[in-house]
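FAQ: What does a multi-protein file look like?

Like this. Sequence, then tokens, then the next protein.
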Amino acid sequence: EGGGGQTDALSALVRDEESYGFEIVRALTAAGNLLTSEGTIYPLLARLRRDGLVTTTWRESESGPPRRYYRITDEGRRTLDAFASDWRRFVGAVDALLAGAHEGDPR
């Protein structure tokens, strides 16, 4: 998956409730600087929309121009669930390797 897991992080942010671009940027930053640059988020969101993993709705804003809100689709949820399963397996394998590196490693 292109985006190095970033598209999956974006999907996770709109899994339970819809959100708009700037809210997503703030959440990614607050989660530990998961955002490399604000300019990268909108092409990733556009890809998620194009791939049918999120839907969007335009809404008027009380402060400024209308906002595009993103919400995960059923297909997006399936894709996210598959990623989460693969991610847990990967993290478990790496944790096991790291634990093994500390136990009996002659280096």
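And here is the next protein:
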Amino acid sequence: GTSGLSAEVSPAAPSVALGGSTGFTVLVEDLNGNYPAAGTVIVVTDTVGGTIVGPDSYDVADSCGAPPVPFGASFTFKADDDAASGQVYISGITPSGIETLWVVNID
């Protein structure tokens, strides 16, 4: 597709303890509410106050007729030892090259 992407974060307001870890999922769909096009990439481009533990990118496979549901990209943020909050910068790039940026605030 040639449309951009939209996303919701679940939980909506991830929180983390000092030096702790928290998980969140970015639920991505195209602007028409459909499953993102096969070949779409969801990737963490930067973090503030911590690091991503585990996978930091996902490739969307063909939905093969899946119902119109979002694609879930799950990430784990580990706060720095002196941080109890942070930000995760995420980019969604469609096969046609349209890039959408999101910032996940973690408190």
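Q: Is there any per-entry metadata?
A: Some entries carry free-text notes. For the entry above: The mean pLDDT is 92.
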